[in-house]
Amino acid sequence: MKIAVYPGSFDPITNGHLDIVRRAGQMFDRVIVAVAINTEKKPLFSVDERRRLAVDAVKGLQNVSVDEFAGLLIKYARRKRATAVVRGLRAVSDFEFEFQLALMNRKLDPSIETIFLMTKDEYTFISSRLVKEIGELGGNVSDFVPRGVERAMKRKFGSR
Ligand code: ADP
Predict the structure, then answer these.
(1) Is 160 a catalytic residue?
(2) Known catalytic residue: 41?
(3) Residue of the nearest CA to atom 16 in ligand 1?
(4) Domain tally for the chain?
């Protein structure tokens, strides 16, 4: 049984993330979307909200589940018996940080491989940060996020 963990803030989950999840789901027996309880970042959505929005977004994908984790990713992955960590790459700008992270994780546990996947090009420009900015300014985010997220953002920002 090949299990992969796809970690991130998912604040909120976007169509870009979902494309990565779908691709990973075709490569692994099981994919766990792992929502990070990150105390450093100030998220728009609470961990609970982020998890619920992700659950709703992946409900059609049978081998995908959603969980949350705190602390060291590698320890979490080991606990889940995952052999791979999946990360998405959008542009060269993602590369440097992701490369560093992957090497660090390899150092911590060489048995867990980091796999990079690229989205369809139509999703490469989507980021949670930009989606939040657009939502806050009253823009239409329906092309970038699943319906549940769009609704949650409308509730969060009100009808400005
Ligand atoms: P983090 O806070 O760990 O960066 P994110 O939720 O922003 O978490 O992203 C999780 C992963 O998904 C990261 O590897 C990120 O590069 C990737 N990702 C985010 N948006 C996209 C996208 N539109 N296309 C491809 N990968 C993406």
Answers:
(1) no
(2) yes
(3) 88
(4) 1
Q: What angle do CA 111, 117, 122 make, to 5 degrees?
A: 165
Q: Which CATH number covers residue 68? A: 3.40.50.620
**45 belongs to a structural domain:** yes
For the entire predicted model, the pTM comes to 0.95
| Domain-located, residue 146 | no
Tens digit of pLDDT for each residue in 31-60? Answer: 999 999 986 778 999 999 999 999 999 999
Tokens of 16: 């870009």
The per-residue pLDDT for range 76-98, each reduced to its tens digit, is 999 999 999 999 999 888 899 99
What's the 125 CA to ligand 1 centre distance in angstroms?
11
Beta strands in the chain (DSSP E): 3-8, 30-36, 64-69, 84-89, 113-118
**Distance from the alpha carbon of residue 128 to the mean position of ligand 1, in angstroms:** 8
